[in-house]
């Protein structure tokens, strides 16, 4: 348990953080989230806090693919529950912070800042953690200023991320790592071959998909292995197609001879957008066919926005996406691998 003295005009005493959440605190956490988040985000229901509590209790995110686990921290002053925050651990050494909620009567007292600093210090005791990041809706000025005061910097603005007509700011803080002095270009996309490609949602076997994705994602992502591939395939089942279960759709491109030449994972997000990640293709024809099918599938699902996350090394892919109606919205610093930034490109549907 981490402790620190804490005193303001409203509260004084010993501030502690813990991951031992009592049943009454879990209920309070659920209530605070459901009272505050729908003000800024769409499609937030009881399944959202429930999934956080369940994952933190289990110690692993059984529905995640880039997310490995979540930790739920409670802040107490002299044993009295005051605040909560969530830390989502990602492949590659980044941690997404939030949501953070403080009891209404204790907001703007300094408690939230002291609490988050204690939590971040605890997280950064792990030398493998390179980066902390979070998102804040552009209309939530108070939360934006709170996180800027904690040393975060704005890395981009995502249009319509969690609510149509509302923008989401991405904030990050790199604590370990550093830019590579000479970034390689990454894989170039070959010209489209004769004969075209066929895109389907018939999933390949785990071995074939792992053999295809792993070497092609290695330069831009860390921690890509068989568990990553299995997490994608497991998320395709019909009973997983909910936000809480993080359902996904897998698009695969094959050449006329049946060889795999591209793959894209499409993930519907709360608020009406959909994400493509990863997006991997061997040539221009496969990339454009995958994107066209992703756009069509997202529209069928009623999504109003589609965005892709692409390592900056994949410059050919970035150029093709911008020519295909996507706009560069954010540059995520070292998001998935030390020394390698990633671009977020978005398109309104």
UniProtKB/TrEMBL annotation:
Protein name, as recorded: N-acetyltransferase domain-containing protein
Domain N-acetyltransferase: 27-176
GO molecular function: acyltransferase activity, transferring groups other than amino-acyl groups
InterPro entries, per the entry: Acyl_CoA_acyltransferase, GNAT_dom
